[in-house]
Amino acid sequence: MLEDEQSLIIFEDWHALAEAVRVRPIDVVIVDPRADGALRVDEVATLVERYPSLPVIVYAVLAPEMLQGTVELARAGVRHVVLRGFDDEPRRFRELLERLPSRTLDGIVMEQLRPRLELAPALLRRAILELFESPHLFRGVSDLARAAGMTRRNLDRWLDRLGLASGRMLLMGARTTRAVHYMRDPGFLLEDITRKLGYESPRLFARQVRAITGLSPSVVRGSVQYEKVIEQVAERLCRRGGCEA
Predict the structure, then answer these.
(1) What is the dihedral of CA 45, 46, 52, 58, to 10 degrees?
(2) Where do the structural domains in the chain lie, given as residue ranges?
(3) Distance between CA 45 and CA 49 in Å, rounded?
(4) Most buried of 4, 88, 144, 190, CB within 10 angstroms?
(5) pLDDT tens digit string along 122-134?
(6) What is each CA distance from 177 to 34, 110, 134, 205, in whole angstroms?
(7) What pLDDT does residue 241 have?
(8) Average pLDDT of the chain?
(9) What class has domain 14-99?
(10) Is 15 in contact with 44 (CB distance < 8 Å)?
(11) What is the largest CA-CA distance in the chain?
């Protein structure tokens, strides 16, 4: 059911899950509220409350106690429930995963860059899309060049030809976009975001956020105008004439 670039992680208890969500890049959580024999509605509700942008799928057996639990989870914000043995056929499960809402901030950047990316070679276009989908997998510009099937020099030439910022700036833009995405959730400390994105230190994280937004991470988080910040990031990723040119 998983694509080649996807991975599945199984956690033994709620504490391990909560810790992983806090410090590791996780796109979706599939949880059985009765995995340890007790109905853990409060734990699931807390997860949704602390990380509202993280899609949570409840995967459970059809049982009397789950009926009331499902109502409580719906009130807490859970929107997806899959019943084991009824609607968990692999194809339907995959379709559900594909229908989950995408990160809107990534979409803002991609829409701004779209006219330029349409002129790029297919591999380069795909590499930049993957960069914004999973910035933690790109440790440096060489990783972007490798994903694009190019040498570092050819990558630089193509980015210049397309009117896009340097590979280094694209990496910073992708990480900053994901950082702002995480900042919207009250459960993440700035230190957590630093670890999730693989920064060597909070100082480096703050320096890069300031370099591309002109603001410190704490100011970005406090502004609450996240879409406007991301629009500014997108503008920085175009060399000439702005992203609409």
Answers:
(1) -40
(2) 14-99, 104-236
(3) 6
(4) 144
(5) 999 999 999 998 9
(6) 35, 11, 11, 12
(7) 54
(8) 87
(9) alpha beta
(10) no
(11) 63
What CA–CA distances, in Å, run from 203 to 112, 172, 191, 206? 29, 14, 10, 5
* 227 within 8 A of 217, measured Cβ to Cβ: no
Sign of CA dihedral 33, 37, 39, 42: negative
The alpha carbon of 94 is separated from its chain's Cα centroid by a whole number of angstroms, namely 18
**Length of the chain in terms of residues written:** 245
What is the structure's pLDDT at 245? 47
Bridge partners, 30 (sequence order): 57
Distance, in Å, from the CA atom of 54 to the CA atom of 214, rounded to the nearest integer, reads 27
Domain 104-236 is found in CATH 3.40.50.10610: no
The larger pLDDT score, comparing residue 93 to residue 234, is at 234
The stretch 151-172 carries a mean pLDDT of 95
The answer to whether the CB of 154 falls within 8 A of the CB of 120 is no
User: Given a cut of 80, is residue 17 above it in pLDDT?
Assistant: yes
Asked if 14-99 and 104-236 have one fold, the answer is no
Find tokens 């702005």 and name the residue. 242
- Cα(89)–Cα(73) distance, rounded to whole angstroms? 23
Q: Give the model's confidence band at 1: pLDDT under 50 very low, under 70 low, under 90 confident, else very high.
A: very low
User: Dihedral of CA 146/149/153/157: which sign?
Assistant: negative
Dihedral over alpha carbons 97, 99, 101, 104 (to 10 degrees): 110
Q: 103 is written with which tokens?
A: 């990160």
Residue 80's beta-bridge partner residues?
57
